[in-house]
Amino acid sequence: MTLQQVVEEKQHRLLRRRHRPAPVRRVGRHDDGPPVPQRGLDNLLEERPATAAAPGMERQDQRSRIASLQVAGDGDRVEHLAVSGHVDCLCRDAGSRAGLGKCRGRHRKQRQDGGKLHSRDDSASGSGGVTVRTRFAPSPTGYLHIGGVRTALFNWLFARRHGGRFILRIDDTDQRRNVREALQPILDGFRWLGLDWDEGPEVGGPHAPYFQSGRQARHQEAVERLLAGGHAYRDYATADEIQAEREAAQRRKQRFIYSRRWMAETPAEAAAFESQGRRAVVRLKMPREGVCAFDDQVRGPVAFEWALEQDHVVQRADGSCLYHLASAVDDHDFEITHVIRAVEHLSNTPRQIFITRALGYDAPAYAHLPYVAEPGSAEKLSKRKLNAYLQHPDFRKLHEHGAAIMSALGESPPPQSFNPLVVEFYRTVGYRPEALLNYLLLLGWSLDDRTEMFTTAEMIAQFTLDRVNRSAASFDALKLLAFEERYMQRLPAEARVAAVVPFLQRCGALPPSPTASDLGRVSRVVAAAGERIRVAGDIVNYTDFFQSDRAFPYDEKAFRKRLRADGAAARLERFRAALETVEPYDAETLNGVMHRFVEAEAIPIGRIVHAVRVAVTGKAVGFGLFEGMEILGRAACLARIDRALEELERSAAERV
RNA sequence: GUCCCCAUCGUCCAGAGGCCUAGGAUUCAGCCCUUUCAAGGCUGAGACACGGGUUCGAAUCCCGUUGGGGACGCCA
After folding, report:
1. What is the pTM of this model?
2. What pLDDT, in 10s, does the model give residues A271-322?
3. CB contact burial A465-503 (16+ within 10 A = b; e otherwise)
């Protein structure tokens, strides 16, 4: 093929690409050219021949069958479907509400015009005048889970990017526990991370209450409207009867579909069942025909057959409402425009769409994020297996590192929250919240093939749902540590000192109100330690600089190896003599002293350096020895060497 | 079992038909530097699940297979 042909082909394709539906960020001027469905009805037919149409059907028949299904299930969208032949987006019509989320036919990542930077002029709020509103709905479990934070972060970023509002709603319909107590650590976690919420607990808002348990009246009202509209019915089946039907379906290897034998649609029917002593729950009367198709903001068009859906219970006999009803109603009441949540909710979406539409609400746009997987596996992270994950080598590393800091602090955090899968862990040990956020951002999202560090402002400016990945991502503890290191290294000196001081106080190395000279020493130690302090809590490795010369502990093993060696004590004593007169007492000079000493003694430097290090710091490892000696000062160094010599003498005496 | 979703180095991502001899990060290994431990520098190992199709050309589009995951509750 000639170059000319290649060029022509390329141009041809580019021309065609221009007619693709516009990406989200160009909303507002995307009505040029017809949308080209990439995964439209044709493909659905091909992909799902057995379910969407009977096997052996001709293409044309399949198409009309689908079209009729659409009619049954989908009312007013049908004409468009029949005409355009592609699955329309149920989430939001073009131009309505935020004007976001118009069906783009395809939601793969879109090439960004002119480089990687998005500008803010594409913000959704700009086009429709309606504020983007997202929510995160934690249940009060007592701790903030890493997977939940990722979901919350994406919601938060999306709202912030579009100048919208981020709402916290508490899903506490399961009220067995003390909600207040179980909620506090979650709110604390959000605050620590800097994920602020515009409406929700503690801050209130125009749609209060933000606790689901306080919204029962609204839910009740919705149930009544569902009933009145014929979208739900009272059902008098017992749990056992339903179970029997379910098992029968299982035996037939079919999906369970309720027979509606105990359905009561009229007062007379209800009375008849009640006379048998039965009590009613309220079930959705789900369509038994048609397709529920919607356009997921990260996964593209998705379709479910209504007939395969259950008549889900929305209200128990005692009047309490179930999650999906409550959620759909609350999302509407809170004017949520974008429901961004984990994929496990994808297959729950049809019933929520059903409830939403039956109630006459506009459906929000949906975006289903891939879940965060277990370390080294594709399985979803499970809160119940937190302890099991500690067996994973990378996790164990992180956990042990944290545990060592805790033990140096003399603290024993509760094991259920002292886990690298719980945000609290990172806070206790002294990670930077920005590092955690940055790591989590990249778990399922990326800007390009190299940008990795994002300030919060940059995240907000760059975040788009179309660059969210669709496959599960497993949590990599070591990579998170690597991010933490980078953030710590880039922290300005004062900030690093400030991060470290509380840890010194927690272990008693520093008084509650440290003096300027205390802080000066901290800052010198922090500077000398450099990259060795990866996590603020790592400062516990240098507490010897803050302890009295006679109190800091010696590492037994190092003491034995470096100071009990033949001739070590005598050498140390001679080196000590040299220290008495050095002037000035700084690292550079000390280095010179050491080298002259080594030369005079005709020994390799290793024979003396380690002995001095152990004598002066008690440890076998640490940062530059001479920097350390300078920080301690002459008097302390001499005192420490004297103490080491005394201990040597004493132990020698004991051995004799 | 039924439905839905997913599939690029061990892990996280890039890739939107030719810029791919597949790029970055992390991890791992080796070397250099060095008073220890780190850091740093350099080098290296390491992936398009498989099979068909479309095309001059496929990691990329289509179909199938396989594999993985999720949902099928009077849980949230």
Report:
1. 0.83
2. 999 999 999 999 999 999 888 988 899 998 888 889 889 999 999 999 999 9
3. bbbbebebbebbbeebbebbbbbbeebeeeebbbbbbeb
Nucleotide nearest to A278 (CA to C1'): B74
Residue numbers in A 269-288, CB below 7 Å of strand B: 281
Integer Cα distance of A29 and A7 in angstroms: 29
Residue A640 CA, nucleotide B15 C1', distance (Å): 60
Q: CA of A532 vs C1' of B40, distance in Å?
A: 13
Residue A281 dihedral angles phi and psi, to the nearest 5°: -110, 165
pLDDT digits (tens, 9 = 90+) for A324-360: 999 999 999 999 999 999 999 999 999 999 999 999 9
Separation of A293 CA and B3 C1' (Å)? 14
Nucleotide nearest to A486 (CA to C1'): B39
For residue A366, the SS3 value is strand
Gyration radius from chain A CA atoms: 33
Stretch A439-448: mean pLDDT, rounded?
95
d(CA A590, CA A132): 63
Distance CA A597, CA A571 (A): 10
Per DSSP bridges, beta strands A133-136 and A165-168 are parallel
Q: pLDDT band at residue A175, thresholds of 50, 70 and 90? A: low
Choosing from A109, A383, A479, A557, the catalytic residue is: A383
Whole-number Å distance between alpha carbons of A532 and A638 = 26
| Furthest-apart CA atoms within chain A: distance in Å | 110
The torsion of the CA quartet A486, A489, A494, A499, rounded to 10 degrees, works out to 60
CB proximity A16–strand B (7 Å threshold):
no
Tokens at A16, concatenated: 């065609």
For residue A348, give the nucleotide whose C1' atom is nearest its CA.
B71
Residue A283 CA, chain-centre distance (Å), reads 34
Question: For residue range A483-506, what is the model confidence (pLDDT) as tens digits?
Answer: 999 999 999 999 999 999 999 999
3-state secondary structure at position A103: coil
ipTM tops 0.85: yes
- Distance between the alpha carbon (CA) of A37 and the C1' atom of B12, Å: 31
Contact A183, A151 (CB under 8 A): no
Residues 43-72 of A, Cβ under 7 A from nucleic strand B = 43, 46-51
Summarised one tens digit per residue, pLDDT across range A19-45 is 222 222 222 212 222 222 223 333 333
CA A199 to C1' B73, in angstroms, rounded, equals: 31
Q: Does A207 contact strand B, using a CB cutoff of 7 Å?
A: no
Bases along strand B below 7 A from a protein CB: 1-8, 10-18, 23-27, 35-40, 56-57, 61-64, 68-76
Q: What is the DSSP letter of A321?
A: B
Question: Got the DSSP string for A408-468?
Answer: HHT----TTT-STTBHHHHHHHT--HHHHHHHHHTSSB-SSSS-----HHHHHHH--GGGB
Å from A601 (CA) to B8 (C1')?
60
Q: Determine whether A383 is an active site residue.
A: yes
Whether A117 sits with its Cβ under 7 A from any strand B atom: the answer reads: no
Q: Give chain A residues 367-426 with Cβ within 7 A of strand B.
A: 370-371, 373, 376-380
Over 60: is that where the pLDDT of A541 sits? yes
Within 8 A by CB and 6+ apart from A23, the residues are: A104, A110, A466
